Please model this.
Amino acid sequence: MGSGKAVAAAAATALAAALLAGCSDGKPLGAHTPTTPVHTSGAPAAPSSAAAATTATPSATPAPAKGTAEVTGTLATGLASPWGVVQLADGTLLVGSRDTGKIIRVDPAKKTSTAVGTVPGVTHTQGGENGLLGLAVSADFGTDHLLYAYFSTESDNRIARMVFDPTRSPGDQLGAPDTILRDIPTGSIHNGGRIAFGPDGMLYAGTGETGQRGLAQDMSSLGGKILRMTPDGQVPKDNPVSGSLVYSPGHRNVQGLAWDAQGRLWASEFGQDTWDELNLIEPGKNYGWPVVEGIAHRAGYVDPVAQWHTDQASPSGIAYAAGSIWMAALKGERLWRIPLNGPKVAGAPQAFFTGTYGRLRTVVAVDDHTILVITSNTDGRGQPHPSDDRILQLTVS
Model:
């Protein structure tokens, strides 16, 4: 069983002390360089620790200021409230339905969808944001076949792992869930939900503050944070503060996590009324919510690298490809390209497909010039096209 409130509470005092020591068209506003730039070295293969993942030199070649994005195919249609998506080694996709808790397997080559199973205990509030959220696969998926899921229950958000066995009958291909982390605060809104394995082999999770703003700065709570844990849900020895799963606090609602080619962690975040954010995440640093929103130049808090008015973004999933972060916008109904030059932006972010495909939820990098974008028009807040929701394949530069 993984760590939960007890682990977080035990480290609350130490973590607080350490931290004190230290959603329309138009150009996004306020590209900004963090006050403490982060640099890393080597391929994102395996920094040996949280510290090693954030110390070295930036990429020598910045991304071009302008890039391109072209839809080259539609891999799936008719999906119901898709949220989490992972690609398997054979090119098939596992897609989770937020509202129903069901997972299907999409074969783009055969244009087929097969029922995998339903995650037990998933709760979704009509009109809300809770349910079956992020998916991730084990680094050793070829041998252990473990699928990880972040999902809401009646009492909490939690992370569990299940064996995926495609040799079993359709609809019965998931093993019993092994919960590795529970007691993440839950609510009808702001549940975070993105999970991803980092280049260091650790599992990262973006959580939300469920509309209870104070949780983001409450070091005994797992809400409003980015968490870092072992594949078993334990606290890594090299986390910012001993005994705590908290990698960074001060977040409102993190739904996007991605690493660049140098192993730097980037996260997208929903603002409230003014600024949505793209943040460069440094271990142990505080990202300000609810004290600050957007670029504030306030001591003790890390400013976002870029920010947008909320009607331009409301960002969910992100991915790294072609030297840029690609960010899905829900309310903004567009795909943003943010070119990078090390820990800085290399030019003004570009918007693609504004209003063309509606709300965009998830981005998956297939290779350095191919990404998948998943629409989110059946989530209760969009206007579904007859073929929604869809998985689009894009070529990007």
